[in-house]
Structure to design on (470 residues):
C-alpha cells in the first residue's frame, strides 16, 4: 500500500508518471489514470488559468481523500498530482492514478478520488481571457451531487 | 487572537489574504458576525453565506462548528479543483 | 472525433501513448486511461501469458465497441491497443483511453469500453506456469453482468 | 462449402484451427449437429454448448442464427480479453 501526493506549481510529465506508477504497482493488473487539462477551445479562448490553493490544508485534504479510497477499495497504489499557479491552455492541471487487482475497483476509486478532490480539496480556478477579464470558476451543483452519491453507496 | 484567512474572491474583495483579530466567538458563525462589523467590505462579503465555506485549523467544517483554541480559521468559496 | 484501434504482438509504451493521446485531444479537458497488466504475484508465479485472437474479427469488434462509446458519450477521441502472443509477467496487455469535455463521460466510456472489450472482443488468455501447466483463463459471470448493466442504462 | 474455424481450447482439443466442410445446415445449431458427426473429438467438444460461442462471418451470433451464404463460421469459448 502506497500513497503519493504532490502539490506543485511545476508541470509534470503525465506519460512518465503513468509509466512509473504502473511499473511500481506490482501484482495490480488494472491501472486507471485521470488527467485534467486546461481546455483550449477556439470558440472560447483562454489566456491562461490561475489556480489558487490553501497550502497545508491542500496536502492534508488530498491525503485524507487517498486514504479513504484505500479503505474502500483493494488498491495497491494511489497517486495524486495537482498543480497551482498560472497554467496555459492545453497544460495538464492534475492527475490521479489508481492500481488494483480488480478493474472495477481501479475505475471506481479513480472516479471517487476525482469527485472528492473536486469539491473537498482547497483549490480555486480562475480563467483569464485575452481581453483582461478574469472570472473565478463556479462550483457546479452536479459536483456536490456526485459526492453525495458516494456517501449513499 | 485568531488568524483569519481568505481565499479566491473573498481575498480579492477584502484586499487581504489574512488578518489577526481578537475574537470572543465560540463558533464559526459567531466569528462571521464579528467580522461583518469590521468594515463595509467584510459586511458585504459575508452577506450571503450560501456561497462560503469555512475551515477550522485546515479542516472543512460547518458554520456552527466550535472554534475553541483554533489557531487558524479560513473562509473561501466552494472548491473547484480537479 | 477520432478512433484509433491497434491489435499487435509488439509491446507498447503506455506513457508515450497517454501523452500523445492527451496532446491530440484538443479541448477535451478530461482524459482517462485504463491499462491491463499481466499479474506478477510471488505467491502465484506465472511463466508467461499467451493471448490468442481472431484476426479480422478482433479489429471489427473493437471498432464497433469504440463507435458505440462515441455514440453514447461526448468523446473527442478513443484509443484501444490490445496485444496478442506471448507476454511476460508485468508486461502491459492492453490499454484504452478516452477524452471528453466532461469528466464523468471520460470515466464511464472507458469503463464501458473495458466491459465490452472483455466479453465481446475475440481474445482468449492462457496462463502458463513454471511447471509446464497451462490453463485457459475462464470468463467470469461478473463480466457478463457488467455488460448487462450497460444495456439497462 | 463453408470454412469452420476453432479457437482456444476448441482448437486444441480438435487438433486443428480450421476445416472446410460441405454443409446443408441453415443455422449454426444445425451446423453443430453436422460437426458432431465428424468425429468423436467433435462430438465431445460440442457436447456442452453452454461454454461455446459462435461467429458467422466474424460477427458474434446466437446458436440459432442463419448461416445462408456465410463464408466463415467460428466456434470458441467465452472471450477473456482486456
Amino acid at each position: 500500500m502506497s500513497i503519493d501526493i504532490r502539490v506543485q506549481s511545476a508541470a509534470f510529465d503525465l506519460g512518465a508518471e503513468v509509466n512509473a506508477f504502473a511499473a511500481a504497482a506490482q501484482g495490480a493488473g488494472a491501472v486507471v489514470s485521470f488527467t485534467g487539462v486546461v481546455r483550449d477551445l477556439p470558440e472560447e479562448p483562454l489566456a491562461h488559468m490561475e489556480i489558487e490553493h490553501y497550502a497545508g490544508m491542500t496536502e492534508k485534504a488530498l491525503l485524507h481523500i487517498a486514504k479513504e479510497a484505500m479503505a474502500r477499495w483493494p488498491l495497491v497504489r494511489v497517486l495524486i498530482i495537482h498543480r497551482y499557479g498560472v497554467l496555459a491552455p492545453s497544460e495538464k492541471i492534475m492527475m490521479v492514478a489508481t492500481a488494483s487487482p480488480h478493474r472495477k475497483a481501479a475505475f471506481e476509486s479513480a472516479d471517487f478520488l476525482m469527485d472528492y478532490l473536486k469539491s473537498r480539496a482547497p483549490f480555486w480556478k480562475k480563467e483569464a481571457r485575452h481581453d483582461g477579464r478574469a472570472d473565478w470558476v463556479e462550483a457546479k451543483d452536479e459536483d456536490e451531487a456526485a459526492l453525495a452519491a458516494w456517501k449513499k453507496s | 487572537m485568531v488568524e483569519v484567512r481568505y481565499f479566491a474572491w473573498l481575498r480579492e474583495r477584502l484586499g487581504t489574504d489574512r488578518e489577526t483579530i481578537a475574537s470572543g466567538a465560540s463558533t464559526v458563525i459567531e466569528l462571521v458576525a464579528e467580522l461583518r462589523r469590521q468594515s463595509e467590505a467584510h459586511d458585504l462579503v459575508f452577506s450571503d453565506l450560501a456561497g462560503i465555506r469555512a475551515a477550522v485549523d485546515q479542516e472543512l467544517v460547518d458554520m456552527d462548528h466550535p472554534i475553541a483554541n483554533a489557531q487558524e480559521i479560513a473562509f473561501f468559496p466552494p472548491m473547484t479543483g480537479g
